[in-house]
Request: fold
Amino acid sequence: MIGDGMGLSHVHAAMTVSQKKLNLQQFPVIGLQKTESSDNYITDSAASATALASGEKAKNGVIGINPEGNFTESIVEILINQGFKTGLIATNTITHATPAAFIAHQPDRNMYEEIASDISTSGVDIIIGGGLKHFTDRADKLNLVEKMKKEGYDFFEDVLQIDSSKDKVLALTANSHMPFKINGRGDFLPVAVEKALQSLDKDNDKGFFLMVEGSQIDPACHNNNQEQFLAEMLDFDKAIGVALDFARENGETLVVVTGDHETGGVTVLKGNYETGEVKVNFSTKGHTGVMLPVYSYGPGSEVFSGFFNNTDFKGRFIFSLNLGNK
Reply:
């Protein structure tokens, strides 16, 4: 689970607003990850998500391609090839940099139609997010939604209508990005996580991998908007709670939560745990290069403790899944 733009100060501010009732506080294992890209001390989401997904550094702006120009192999691609179920969820477009890096390979993160094409042929079982226009209103005139329906996907435009008994789900619930939480997105993210977990777990003894992005922490912090980003943090934490409840009941599920980079240079200036009041300061409208917290729960969580690089996630997931060297 990736909070786009989420750093430690974001978590602490949200913990204050929640009066110390964040689901994140219940994670027993905590680590720290470094985030620089191959060509910049300050990463963007494309490079950081490529590193998280594939274990290889990339240049800023590049999706699933290493600096030598070769396609990377993501954890999702490995698991699909080994017969595991997989899913991607985002509150931005599903073609945006973070979800895209788990399945697509494009030289420019803004090649949304090409990324949609990659997603449509990926074999990912559960796809939930915005970005309908990149699948239907395309320069090549293809309708990828109709194509995917013919290939066995059930299509939904409302997260509440998703039938979790279906094996293949394509839910594109907005033409582009969904609105901020404070502008009417509702419980899209926690509902999407619940539906995805139900579908992925159904009749499944092998296991699954689900990537969930709390996408709009990042743009809220680019806006230097405290109200927006705290609402996004609390919404993301609610989705984390859904995953944590599933993992507790299941007993065989590893949940890992981190960010891809820090946005806004957030510092917490003052607060009150009893009233939930907090005041933050933003030092930039861009990204920063600080290390990010990594929270983990469940079998294999111990390998996500300590200090490591964002390229280490893939190998540690593989180790936790006992898949050997990949």
Remarks:
- Residues 2-320 form a domain with the Alkaline Phosphatase, subunit A fold (CATH 3.40.720.10).
